[in-house]
Design goal:
It comes from Nitzschia inconspicua. Keywords: ATP-binding, Helicase, Hydrolase, Nucleotide-binding. It contains six helices and two strands, in the order E-E-H-H-H-H-H-H. A two-stranded antiparallel ribbon has the order 1-2.
Length: about 210
């Protein structure tokens, strides 16, 4: 249990004292934690099936081992969003980054170690290959975990070293651009997901306590 002062979209203190709970482990499985994008296929990659990639035996074995580990991760937590920093298995988090990097290279038509067979295995497991989508889902998962623990989304500016607070500011900016008809990464599905946890699109409207 921690007491802190919330900040508005520009980082100014709202003078709104809040007591909030921090779940011990944001990786615990939560039903409905990822309500969007799960049925959206990853963008198609350029066909490079004609290019044969030869792997050494130990390279194939290492990839297979990491793939088995990520399936165990999914079985335990209900998703495949391995954190960038994952002390229980640092090699797994590095492997996840590598798969997304190789996917990006493959999309651009560059040489990639992500073969069609490997890509198919990852997609069938519902692994998010697109790094931008993965980051959004991870941030949303953290915010929803906070909401389920505290009943609101008023994240203190210091929470997670400010990274989640900054992400929330970006969502508000993207939403504003969308409402103006301008180009924005915000989608109706993301808006619905954020609305489902009471996300405040204009934190300046938060009521300040009356001074006595």
């Amino acid at each position: 249990m921690v007491t802190n002062i919330c900040s508005d979209v520009d980082g100014e203190p709202l003078n709104l004292e809040e007591t909030y709970n921090i779940p011990e482990n944001f990786l615990f499985p939560i039903d409905g934690l990822f309500p969007i994008d799960r049925n959206i296929s990853n963008p198609p990659t350029k066909d490079r099936s004609s290019i044969s990639i030869r792997f050494r035996k130990y390279q194939t074995s290492q990839w297979d081992d990491r793939f088995k580990e990520i399936l165990l991760f999914q079985q335990k937590y209900g998703h495949l969003l391995v954190p960038h920093s994952y002390p229980p298995n640092p090699k797994l988090s590095q492997w996840v980054k590598r798969q997304r990097n190789q996917y990006k290279r493959k999309q651009k038509g560059h040489h990639s170690t992500l073969t069609d067979e490997r890509e198919k295995l990852l997609l069938e497991a519902e692994f998010i290959l697109d790094s931008h989508r993965a980051v959004w889902q991870t941030r949303f998962a953290t915010l929803k975990a906070f909401y389920l623990a505290n009943g609101h989304c008023r994240i203190p500016s210091q929470f997670e070293e400010g990274s989640l607070h900054v992400w929330m500011k970006h969502q508000r900016r993207h939403h504003s651009l969308l409402m103006k008809g301008e180009k924005s990464p915000m989608t109706n599905e993301r808006i619905a997901a954020l609305n489902s946890i009471g996300f405040d699109w204009n934190p300046r409207n938060l009521l300040r306590p009356n001074k006595t």
